[in-house]
Amino acid sequence: MKHKDHHCYKIVHSIVIWIGLLLSFCSYAQEHNLIIKAQELVYSDPDESIKIAEHILNTSEDPEQIAISNLLIAKAQIVKGDYNKAVIFAFDKTNHTKSITKNTQLELNLVKSQLLRRVYLDTQAQDVLDKGKELLKNLPQNSYKDSLQCLIKLEEIYTLNERRNSDKAIALIEQTQREFNSFLKTNITEKRALFLAKERAYNNLAQYDSAVVYIEKTLKLLNTSQFNDLYQKALIYRELGYLHLQKKEFNKSEESLIIASRFAEIINNPILLMEINKDLSINYLASNQNAKHKIFNEKYISLNAEVERTEQLAVNSLYSILADQDEEFFKTEKETHNNYLYLLIAGLLVALFVGGYIVIKGETRKKRRKEIINYLEIVRHKDVKAKPVKKTKPKRISIPEETEQLILSKLKRFEASNKFLNKDISLAVLAGQFDTNTKYLSGVINKHYDDNFNTFINKLRINYVIDKLKSDPHYINYKISFLAEESGYSSHSSFATVFKSIVGMSPVTFIKLIQKERAESKQKSSN
């Protein structure tokens, strides 16, 4: 009887074990399917992808699945434009578990590098990419390895493009296309990304014909992906709209930017929406649609403040996370290494990190300051210089020499008279005052000043304000709305937009630079 009971117990025990294994396998398979689903939704429905990945984080104990979930959330947050949240998940300490596969480590490194690049920490971003390259050496040669190598190259290309090293970017793109020629024939996503990067490089160089060629190639591959990538669609249509804007094709630019904004709104990306609204604002300003310009310029200003706040949070999070990770590393290695040495290294790493960020920001400010000082030196001699006539350049409009010289002399008197501050001034009004027609007046301005009428007037007005800010100390304390009114503009926003387009920075920043320059001069003279 006892033997029989013992035999039954063994059977029941075996059944329980098998049921447990089956349930465990089913649970793993279910989580694996959820990961695949989350991957499919990252670029089309990032919020849903985040929900799925968070569910896996709450239910799974597998380090690999936890790391992949963190990776997916970081990617989805980048798509949503929230770099701070992306940093938190990409740099989570659980991602450093030794059992995590090299493939996942590599993809995490790519995301980390992307985040560091976007907050201008290029040195740190390249360090992370270099670690990824080392991990790649141990992977077998296959299409997945080619994909990761291509993505690393793309990260380096994006850095060159964003820092305006366009010639180097084009050279690296062409090298990548040659190196991965076979891979790119069957992998559309990477091929399209290289086309778009090449378009951006040519756009930066103002080689618009070449840019058009590569944006058209990009568009042909737009709907060939397996998944509905709304993020890429928003990026591509924004790039198309920006290219049309550079070519002064305002209607086409507006159409493409509106399409881009719809995709950006679906994924709720404030960074993309900020860039799109900025381009639309410039478009409407250039095409004299002032009401629309005001609407989109206000949207841009609001989004810009939100984006700057998020990016600053991301920088703070990076500093805190990296410092904590260094501290944790020193604790685990304390038994085999000299603790004081690691504390010194930690201090150096933190100092390099913070110092690198401060130096980059400082160099950017110095560059902008140098540009404005150079600009002030130019306008100090003469507000608007007539462009020398190039004899080889054919005339668009045939104007009698005597009439041309008469109009030019009247323009000189007009510059000295400050009549350009009149809000009602227009090409037709000024032509009437000069006793000539609009074609002749426009032709002379274009020939001798290399500007259209609106730009000619805007430069005179802005140079007038700059001279006042330099010569009259009271003007530094006036509100921007007063400066706008004083210089002939009907609104604060239109004045600020024109000022930035001509000088390269906002009126507020310009005034701060002059105040700083005066304070430094005063300090030097007192010493």
Protein architecture, described:
- With 527 residues, this protein is mostly helical.
- It has a domain of 145 residues: Arc Repressor Mutant, subunit A, CATH 1.10.10.
- Helix content is 78%, strand content 0%.
- The chain contains 23 helices and no strands.
- The radius of gyration is 30 Å and the shape is elongated.
- The protein starts with a helix and ends with a helix.
- About 2% of the residues have low confidence.
Index terms:
single chain, 527 residues, mainly alpha, Arc Repressor Mutant, subunit A, 23 helices, 78% helix, elongated
Shape label: elongated
Main β-sheet description: none
The averaged pLDDT comes out at 84
Tell me the β content. Answer: under 5%
Structural class: mainly alpha
Helix and strand sequence = HHHHHHHHHHHHHHHHHHHHHHH
CATH architecture of the domain at 382-526: Orthogonal Bundle
* CATH class categorisation of the domain at 382-526: Mainly Alpha
Helix content: over 70%
Determine the N-to-C terminus distance.
108 Å
Number of helices: 23
Q: If you compute it from the alpha carbons, what radius of gyration comes out, rounded to the nearest whole angstrom?
A: 30 Å
- Which stretches are low in confidence, meaning pLDDT under 50 for 5 or more residues running? 381-392
Q: CATH topology of the domain at 382-526, anyone?
A: Arc Repressor Mutant, subunit A
Structure summary, number of beta strands: 0
CATH superfamily of the domain at 382-526: Homeodomain-like
